[in-house]
Amino acid sequence: MEMKIMEFIDMAAHNRLIKLVILAVVFDTVFGVLRAAKEKKFNSCAGIDGAIRKIAMLISLVFMLAVDMLVRINLIAFIPKAVREYTGTDTVGVTEFFCLLYTAYEITSIFKNMALCGLPVRKVWEAVRGFLSRYTDELPDTDGLDRVPDPDRLGGNSTGGSVEEYRQQEK
Fold first, then answer.
1. How far apart are CA 147 and CA 161, in angstroms?
2. How many other C-beta atoms can be found within 10 angstroms of the C-beta atom of residue 78?
3. In angstroms, rounded to a whole number, what is the distance separating the alpha carbons of residues 25 and 30?
4. Segment 52-98, tens digit of pLDDT
5. Cβ of 111: how many Cβ atoms within 10 Å?
6. What b-and-e string marks burial along 13-26, b requiring 16 or more CB atoms within 10 Å of the CB?
7. pTM above 0.85, yes or no
8. Contact 114, 125 (CB under 8 A)
């Protein structure tokens, strides 16, 4: 029994995709807190709902890793070819499958929070959103991104635009 527990801990500690999810959760939390500070209110990353969601993702990965130890399932056929080639993996268990889903979800949230913080990543956000739209219809909402001015449309600086646009942004 002790050997199985040590094997389980070793599998969790050396799984690259679990590490990627943890890293994405940390980055999303950081940018979510920065966004909350900028907007002076809690949001989906810097509030209790966001914390519960992130902890639930990590706990679910632990349980899925246990399932992978008990039942060997290869879900590689459910992964798009481009993603398979990028990750360089031949087998995808339940844990890795959900790691990829969680990572995609967190990456969209990271870029959304970065854009809402005022960082110049709108085009990256749109590219990520475009990539995901090829594989799913369930995309995150634009929650506030419609209010953030695109610097390219404002002549390259954030001080451009009309008074009416500014009044709309204030609302």
1. 13
2. 9
3. 9
4. 888 999 999 999 988 888 888 888 888 778 877 777 777 788 888 88
5. 24
6. eebebbebbbebbe
7. no
8. yes
- Per the CB < 8 A criterion, the answer to whether 117 and 35 are in contact is yes
Q: Which two tokens stand for residue 161?
A: 């635009």
Helix 94-116 to helix 16-39 angle, to the nearest 10 degrees? 20
Cβ count within 10 A of residue 114:
20
- Tokens matching residue 13: 């500690």
DSSP letter at 156 equals: T
* 29/75 Cα distance (integer angstroms): 29
Residue linked to tokens 């969790």: 12
| SS3 call for 166 | helix
CB contact set of 111 (below 8 Å; sequence gap of 6+) = 121, 124, 125, 128
| CA gap 33, 45 in Å, rounded | 7
Tell me if residue 22 falls in helix, strand or coil. helix
